[in-house]
Design goal:
mainly alpha; 3-stranded parallel beta sheet; 5 helices; 3 strands
C-alpha cells in the first residue's frame, strides 16, 4: 500500500473498496511503516490488513531499549487478537533479530542483517525486451 499521510472519509471508503476487491481476487494486503507516523492504528480498524510491517523506527535497538520493547509487545498482542501477521523491518544486527524472535515472538523479519538490496545481482530474464 502506498504511504498515506491523511485520508478523508471519501479516500478511506475508496481505499477500503480497493482492498475488498483485491481480497475477492485472492490477494492479501499489508500495512507498511507502523511506527513511522504514516500507519496509524485506526487504519487497522478501517482497512483490516492481513499483514502489518513494523518500521525500523520501532525496531531499532529493540534488544536494549525497554520503551521500544513495551511498544513492540503491545503491537504483537494487538496483531494476535486481530489475526494480523507481523513483519519487522530494518533488522540490522543479530541482537535485534534474536530479541524480536525470542522475546516478542515476531518471526518474519527483513533487513540488512539478512541481506542488502541486490537487484542488479539478479539473473537476466530472457525473452523480454529491455524497456
Amino acid at each position: 500500500m502506498a504511504d498515506i499521510l491523511t485520508l478523508n472519509d471519501a479516500c478511506r471508503a475508496h481505499l477500503h473498496n480497493i482492498i475488498d476487491t483485491y481480497r475477492q481476487m485472492g490477494f492479501t494486503t499489508a500495512l507498511d511503516d507502523l511506527g513511522k507516523g504514516h500507519a496509524n492504528l485506526d487504519l487497522l480498524v478501517d482497512l483490516r490488513p492481513d499483514k502489518l510491517k513494523i518500521d525500523r523506527a520501532l525496531v531499532m535497538d529493540c534488544h536494549q531499549d525497554t520503551r521500544r520493547q513495551v511498544l513492540l509487545k503491545a503491537v504483537v498482542d494487538i496483531a494476535r487478537q486481530l489475526e494480523i501477521d507481523l513483519v519487522a523491518e530494518g533488522i540490522e544486527c543479530r541482537e535485534e533479530a534474536r530479541w524480536l524472535h525470542e522475546e516478542a515472538g515476531i518471526v518474519q523479519h527483513q533487513g540488512f542483517y539478512y541481506a542488502r538490496p541486490a537487484f542488479e545481482a539478479l539473473p537476466p530474464i530472457h525473452g523480454f525486451a529491455a524497456s
